[in-house]
Specification:
Elements lengths: L2 H15 L18 H11 L8 H10 L15 H7 L11 H11 L14 H10 L3 E3 L10 E4 L2 E8 L5 E8 L2 E7 L8 E3 L3
Antiparallel strand pairs: 1-6, 2-3, 2-6, 3-4, 4-5
Length: 198
């Protein structure tokens, strides 16, 4: 029996034993589960085990499992774990690593970035690819979805949730030298746009 099968069965049992959650308001995503199956799923993806579910859920789970990873030493743009993120971009040099992080998380989720899954070392190259391939969503098009990449000028993260008040919670690599959660207003802190992977 695979870990994915066990996780799916746990989720089925939890669903059968609990009343359904209240639906969020229209256009607003749920804030995320804290059930045993969700925690197990995050740990599984962080350790390279594929799970069922769409690409959006898998990329969020992969990123969530990395929250707290930091540069060693601080300010170095490096650590053994950050070197793993760079491995998603062949030949990626030590340097700013937010695009490496989202490239790594997307690869873990089974939706590698780039025409050939090569990932990106720069935000500009990532967003240019998204625009060429029809994956770019302008910030003015409405709220993002969990699992979307959120793009600013020279920085990128992953939308973890859109909260009931419209604010956007993200998981970002290279945010104050670590993988961190951040929350922005409905405008995404001035985001240029989003990249929809699934």
């Amino acid at each position: 029996m695979t870990l994915a099968t066990v996780t799916a069965r746990i989720a089925e049992i939890e669903t059968a034993l609990q009343p359904p959650p209240a639906a969020p308001p229209p256009g607003v995503a749920a804030t995320g589960a804290t059930s045993f199956s969700a925690v197990l799923g995050q740990a599984a993806i962080a350790n390279g085990f594929p799970l069922s579910g769409g690409p959006a859920a898998r990329i969020v789970a992969a990123a969530a499992g990395e929250v707290g990873q930091s540069e060693q030493p601080p300010g170095s743009n490096d650590s053994p774990r950050i070197a793993e993120y760079r491995s998603a971009v062949p030949g990626g040099p030590v340097g700013p690593w937010c695009a490496y992080f989202v490239s790594w998380a997307a690869r873990q989720a089974g939706v590698p970035l780039g025409d050939n899954g090569e990932g990106f070392a720069s935000v500009d190259a990532l967003y240019a690819w998204a625009q060429r391939s029809g994956r770019a969503v302008p910030a003015t098009a409405g709220p993002p979805r969990p699992g979307d990449l959120i793009v600013w000028d020279e920085h990128v993260g992953i939308v973890e949730a859109v909260l009931p008040d419209g604010s956007i919670r993200t998981i970002e690599g290279n945010s104050s030298d670590r993988v961190a959660r951040r929350t922005y207003g409905a405008d995404g802190g001035g985001a240029l746009g989003y990249v929809r992977l699934g």
